[in-house]
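Annotated sample (chain length 134).
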Amino acid sequence: MYWSYARRVWSSGTFFVQLQLLLLVVLPMLPLFLLLLLLLLLLITIIAAGVVAVAAIAVAAAVAVAATTAIAAPTIAAAAAAAAAATTTTTTTTTTTTTTIAKKEEEEEKDNEDEDEDEEEEEEEEDDDDDDSD
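Output written by the structure step:
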């Protein structure tokens, strides 16, 4: 009903009637269109950021593989620095945290092994003391 009335007024109306119809019909819908456009741009931005992050991670992984197999250390160091600069803060933080946790676990394992060795030595000394007392 509303649109049929708008069509009739548009086709038969004067310029001022058409202008009034434009102001009453099109402009109220403008915020909705702008909101949809904004959401579309936001979605595109999120996708682009994801693609950049994945590409940076892939470059960093390739540099890490090259670093383990190649001899040219200065070139690899420069490429690694470039890849590190390209990665996102989140990736860097995650990698650092993972590395720190792995180092702590290694230190704990070494400490546990040292404690086990100390206990074994103490037991051997006690056994030797028992043998000596006989």
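Annotation: The mean pLDDT is 73.
Annotation: The helical segments are 2-12, 15-69, 73-86, 89-133.
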